[in-house]
Amino acid sequence: MTNPTAAMLVIGDEILSGRTRDANMYHLAGRLTEMGIDLKEVRVVSDDASEIVDAVNGLRSKFDHVFTSGGIGPTHDDITADNVAAAFGVPIGPRQDAIDILATNYPGGHTELNAARMRMTRIPEGAVLIDNPISKAPGFTIGNVHVMAGVPKIFEVMLDGLLPKLTGGDPVVSESVRLNIPEGDVAGPLGLIADAFPTLSIGSYPFSNSEGYGTNIVMRGTRASLVAEAAEKVRETFDVD
Amino acid sequence: MTNPTAAMLVIGDEILSGRTRDANMYHLAGRLTEMGIDLKEVRVVSDDASEIVDAVNGLRSKFDHVFTSGGIGPTHDDITADNVAAAFGVPIGPRQDAIDILATNYPGGHTELNAARMRMTRIPEGAVLIDNPISKAPGFTIGNVHVMAGVPKIFEVMLDGLLPKLTGGDPVVSESVRLNIPEGDVAGPLGLIADAFPTLSIGSYPFSNSEGYGTNIVMRGTRASLVAEAAEKVRETFDVD
After folding, report:
1. Model-level pTM?
2. I want to staple B74 with a disulfide (CB 3.0 to 4.6 A). Which of A105, A106, A187, B186 is the partner?
3. Which CATH architecture group holds B5-165?
């Protein structure tokens, strides 16, 4: 049995201009790996309608899940919900349950549920809301696309609510072996080990420090016993304790 | 005149598994913005031949430049060069100038230019080498695709050599205004300002701290006078000194 697959779509000019360093990709990658959903691709696109529609449609037809991040706030540049609706060819409009949730956030005082905030109650037809315990404005799931906020704290809390509802696969386990050997000397023998364990992903990551060059070898797979066996083979081959 | 456009392709299972946090995207985005090349899309794909070929061909036909990061080392999982060659439909093999460069790195001692390291001298036909002053193994440019290492220090030094050779556009200047006003109250008036400055990219980024909610407004564009004018309009509209 193979694990479910996923893609991520990050929406936002602020990432592409270098103003903001994306944090959500790294967080999502780790969370999905833990639950056995294989993240296969990430795309970052600008706040542009046709780019968003094309990316959503390209990714949702190819992977079991698509997670989006960014562009669901109250301002003119928040166009994700509209374009996800367009990608699915469904109407979008303010929805009463989203209005009720947002209204609890503005019981009076100096903020109000104005026209801009009402933008955040616009949900594509047929979507299921994703809870946002921090700032209330919900995300949503439509088909296999999960639409979430870009602000990392809110993205993470939305994922906390969403992920337990998804079916995971076999969690991927990994083991690392640190070698004080340059990658170019590791590569030949390591290739033979990789050939001998075709179901594992065996990666090699060079480093350098004051003592010279070295290489971290990382074995990843869903069968812990096989991962352990490959790690032992690496230790044996390169004479590591 | 519009600025040249670019995409980035990050190649590596270690990013998608959450083992490694990508640093090259943020670095490249900032460098391109400085020189007036507009980064329009980023993709992260796994160490998979057909994914790499499809992404290279999809992106190089759509943008003026494609910058890749990762997968050009000596090990079995370094398959970028082969698949960039496949994307262009050209042969690949060891090239004498690359061998000469690498040989200077191994003048004797405990490392040698073995079969694995020879992998790093394999260059697609017609490519131009990109200098690597740190670990010598070169990157290369073929057509409009610039192939570089994934290790951040090496990626950055390769860019240092490459970027001055590319033609930039009008550098994008930006100005920020910090408002101690929740984004939902900023959104309405800000939309009108965005409409009045259609050639600028005006973004809105909410924050929260102990004093409550606020919003950073960022105006970006190639005409500094227009950016300043929009910033002044924001300050005036929201009564900021």
Report:
1. 0.92
2. A187
3. 3-Layer(aba) Sandwich (3.40)
B residues 33-92 lying closer than 8 A (beta carbon) to A:
33, 38-47, 51, 73-77
Q: Residue A207 pLDDT more than 80?
A: yes
Angle at the Cα of B28 from the Cα atoms of B203 and B31, rounded to 5 degrees: 80
Task: Please tell me which of the candidates B111, B119, B205 has its beta carbon nearest to residue A14.
Answer: B205
Residues of chain A with Cβ-Cβ distance to B47 below 8 Å are 201, 203
B117 - beta bridge partners?
none
pLDDT given for residue A111 in this prediction:
65
CA pair distance B100, B158, nearest whole angstrom? 18
In the predicted model, what is the mean pLDDT of residues A184-204?
94
Q: Say if the Cβ atoms of B204 and A39 lie within 8 Å.
A: no
Residue B236's pLDDT is what? 96
Q: Do A16 and B31 touch (CB under 8 A)?
A: no
CATH class of the structural domain A173-237: alpha beta
Each residue's pLDDT tens digit, B112-163:
788 889 999 999 999 999 999 998 999 999 999 999 999 999 999 999 999 9
As a whole-number percent, the residues of chain B with pLDDT over 90 amount to 82
CA distances from B54 to B68, B86, B88 (A): 13, 10, 11
Testing the interface with A: which of B3, B11, B15, B25 to mutate, by most A Cβ within 10 A?
B25
